[in-house]
Design brief:
By secondary structure, the chain is α+β, with helices and mostly antiparallel strands. 31% of the residues lie in helices and 32% in strands. The termini are far apart. 32% of the residues are buried.
Length: 180
C-alpha cells in the first residue's frame, strides 16, 4: 500500500468516482457506522446519493475531499457551507469515512485536518459536526481538539435501526488554519 493522498474532488470527477464512493459508503454502513443509512444500503442507492451531491459540489456549497491509495478511494470528508446569510461564517464536517481495510493509518485524522484547513481557508470561523456517542469517531474528534456541545439521546438510528445518542461538536476559532 502506498502513502495515501488527500485532495479535493472536482465536480467533473464525481461521475467517475461515484462507484468507488458508493463502495466506501456501503463499507462504512456494513461496518456499523451511523452515517445516515440503514444496513440494507446497496451500491446503487449509495451511488445515487453521491451523485445527488453534484449541484452542491458545482456551486461550492459542498466540498468533497478524498483520500486515495493509488487510484482507489479509501476515505472521504465533506464540508458543507451554511447557506443562510447569518451563517456564512460556519461550516459542517460530515461523511468522514475511512474504508475498514485502511483504518489505523491516521487517515481519519488527515482527512479531518484537511477539511478543517479547507473550511478555514474559505472563511469559516466556526466548524460543527455530529457523531454517534461512544463511537471511535467521537474519540477522534475529542483528540483533535473539538469541543462537545452536548448529547441528544435517540437522535439517529444506527444501521441496524436502533436509536442512538449523538454528540454535537464545535471547533472555534480555526484561525490557525486560515490562509492569508
Amino acid at each position: 500500500m502506498t502513502s495515501p493522498t488527500v485532495s479535493r474532488l472536482r465536480p467533473d470527477e464525481l461521475g467517475a468516482a461515484a462507484p468507488q464512493l458508493a463502495e466506501l459508503l456501503v463499507d462504512a454502513v456494513d461496518g456499523g457506522a451511523s452515517v445516515g443509512f440503514p444496513a440494507s444500503l446497496d451500491r446503487t442507492a449509495a451511488e445515487a446519493w453521491w451523485l445527488s451531491r453534484a449541484t452542491a459540489l458545482a456551486d461550492g456549497s459542498h466540498v468533497l475531499l478524498t483520500a486515495r491509495d493509488g487510484d482507489r478511494i479509501i476515505g472521504t470528508a465533506s464540508v458543507g457551507f451554511a447557506s443562510y446569510p447569518n451563517g456564512r461564517h460556519r461550516a459542517e464536517i460530515f461523511k468522514l469515512l475511512v474504508h475498514r481495510d485502511a483504518r489505523g493509518r491516521g487517515l481519519g485524522r488527515a482527512l479531518l485536518a484537511a477539511a478543517e484547513h479547507g473550511a478555514a481557508g474559505a472563511g469559516a470561523t466556526l466548524l460543527v459536526l455530529d457523531t454517534e456517542t461512544g463511537s471511535p469517531a467521537e474519540m477522534l474528534y475529542r483528540s483533535a481538539g473539538w469541543t462537545a456541545a452536548g448529547v441528544i439521546p435517540d437522535y439517529a438510528a444506527d444501521p441496524a435501526g436502533e436509536l442512538r445518542p449523538t454528540t454535537f461538536f464545535f471547533k472555534s476559532p480555526v484561525s490557525e488554519c486560515r490562509t492569508e
